[in-house]
Specification:
This protein is an alpha/beta fold and 314 residues long. The protein is 45% helix and 20% strand. It is built from 12 helices and 10 strands.
Length: 314
């Protein structure tokens, strides 16, 4: 099958490499120095055990020259998704599926506005991945996983075909009949870790062990769950406990991509993660005071990173 990976950084680079190794045609969309290295030297992926995969790849920065694809995997940052969604329809044919792989809960709807709900697959990724340098991706921990589904919960032939391709490529994958709930569970995990990690400047091992910051983590999670349920998302009763137990299994030195971006003074996913909790909570009439505090503590730096001077109050 023909796959276009829109966004070929840590996540897109890792999963695109596995699919190409399995025999699929993969086109990597990238830009800048990363694009130059992909074209000239190829892509290098290292797993958590030190095993290295090196591939010569097709890479481009121009979607209009790529041609139609069977699957378009969108792995850009959440703050880039609106612009990308407007550009990807050029890759569509009748049976194309567009798979979103962002950390937030709003990307599938944004993409569906451009390509249609029937051709949109909501998806999420598990695992920690880092772009160590242009053309070099490292899997840092947690089993690489993709969970996805049609937005209406149907099991279509196109979704089933993608599931088989991912599994055959050695990627642990699940086809969900309630992708909205799955997305909110991932949102709960990532947003709580990112927010607490960014505001404390601490690794996961540090803030989950210290009693006060562990309590912060639990409170942030409880607020997110309250927002989800107020919006009609069907989360199991033990969601908080299971998520917290999962976090306890992570390598102690782990940090999230949003946390690293904020620490490094780069534009981050603050608005699509903690900012979304505050905004969606307000829409649902649910108070989110700790998420509001974290957002307010980080927004000035975020706006500096984006070159924005005017502060908009929430």
């Amino acid at each position: 099958m023909r796959i276009v990976m829109v966004g070929s950084g840590a996540v897109g680079g890792y999963f695109g490499a596995q699919l190409q190794r399995a025999g699929h045609e993969v086109v990597f969309i990238a830009r800048g120095e990363h694009l130059r290295v992909l074209r000239e030297s190829g892509l290098t992926v290292t797993d958590q055990n030190g095993a290295t995969l090196r591939l010569q790849v097709q890479a481009s920065d121009d979607l209009t020259t790529v041609g139609p694809a069977d699957y378009v995997m969108i792995a850009v940052k959440t703050w880039q998704i609106a612009d990308v969604a407007r550009s990807v329809p050029v890759l569509r044919h009748e049976h194309t599926r567009f798979l979103t792989l962002q950390n937030g809960v709003e990307a599938p709807d944004i993409v569906a506005e451009q390509v249609g709900r029937a051709q949109t697959l909501g998806g999420l990724v598990r695992g920690f991945f880092e772009l160590e340098a242009p053309g070099r991706v490292r899997h840092a921990g947690v089993q690489p996983t993709i969970i996805f589904g049609q937005l209406d919960g149907q099991r279509t032939p196109e979704a089933e075909r993608l599931l088989r391709a991912l599994l055959d490529a050695g990627i642990y994958s699940e086809l969900s009949d309630d992708i909205e709930a799955a997305l909110w569970e991932k949102f709960l995990l990532v947003t709580s870790m990112s927010g607490v990690g960014a505001v404390t400047r601490a690794s996961i091992g540090e803030f989950r062990q210290y009693p006060a910051t562990r309590a912060m983590l639990e409170t942030v999670m409880a607020e997110i769950i309250a927002v989800a349920r107020a919006r009609g998302v069907r989360l199991p009763d033990d969601t908080l406990e299971r998520t917290l137990a999962f976090i306890d299994t992570f390598p102690p030195e782990t940090t999230t991509s949003m946390q690293r971006d904020i620490i490094n003074g780069l534009p981050s996913e603050l608005e699509a993660q903690t900012g979304a909790v505050v905004r969606l909570g307000r829409e649902a009439g649910v108070a989110t005071p700790l998420n509001q505090y974290i957002y307010d503590s980080l927004i000035l730096q975020e706006r500096r990173a984006r070159g924005l001077e005017r502060i908009v109050a929430r």
